[in-house]
Write a structure and sequence with these properties.
The chain is of the alpha+beta class. It has 2 domains: 1-47; 50-174, 60s Ribosomal Protein L30, Chain: A (2-Layer Sandwich), CATH 3.30.1330. It is built from 4 helices and 6 strands.
């Protein structure tokens, strides 16, 4: 009988130890996620500060390892997307602020979506449209009047450059 009690005691100890270890791992993962989200929010807030708005003739690029990035060059704001994705790159606030500032200055934003040549052409065309609509929706959500934003499908939706450069949404500010 004493041997059975010792076995139960050992099993309970091992079970409690494993549950404690699992809880520790879960809390560690949650902590890391919250920490990285806080750092991302801090970076976006710094980029959205009034002094950080890029001038449209200046070249500004934010490159993210997974393929999503932003470039402001020569009066065009390009939002580049990861393969198969439709998420804006972290740090997009500065580029969006550039577009908003241009619209507030009396210009209109013309948005066009492009895709790369990999995969199914029909699906890529739909994804390019979805990306363009995302940029439009973000701009209107930030207070840009809908009549100042125009979606324009380019005649050729396959983008130029390498595949990473081809997967983009261009925002041109016109008078």
């Amino acid at each position: 009988m004493a041997a059975m009690a010792d076995d139960d005691s050992q099993q309970n100890f091992i079970l409690a130890f494993l549950l404690g270890l699992i809880a520790l791992v879960i809390f560690l993962v949650i902590g890391i996620v919250l920490y990285t989200q806080g750092r991302k929010a801090d970076a976006d807030a710094r980029l959205a500060a009034p002094g950080s708005v890029a001038i449209l003739t200046e070249t500004v690029a934010v490159v993210i390892p997974d393929g999503a990035s932003i470039r402001v060059q020569g009066g065009v704001v390009n939002f580049y997307f990861a393969s198969g994705g439709a998420d804006l790159a972290p740090g997009a606030a500065a580029a969006l602020a550039t577009v908003i500032k241009g619209v507030e200055g009396g210009r209109r934003a013309v948005i066009s979506g492009f895709h790369d040549t990999t995969g199914d052409g029909g699906l890529n065309k739909q994804l390019a449209k979805r990306r363009a609509e995302l940029v439009r929706d973000v701009l209107t959500g930030l207070g840009v009047p809908a009549d100042k934003v125009e979606l324009k499908q380019p005649e050729v939706t396959t983008g130029s450059g390498n595949n990473a450069e081809a997967r983009r949404v261009e925002v041109r500010l016109i008078d």
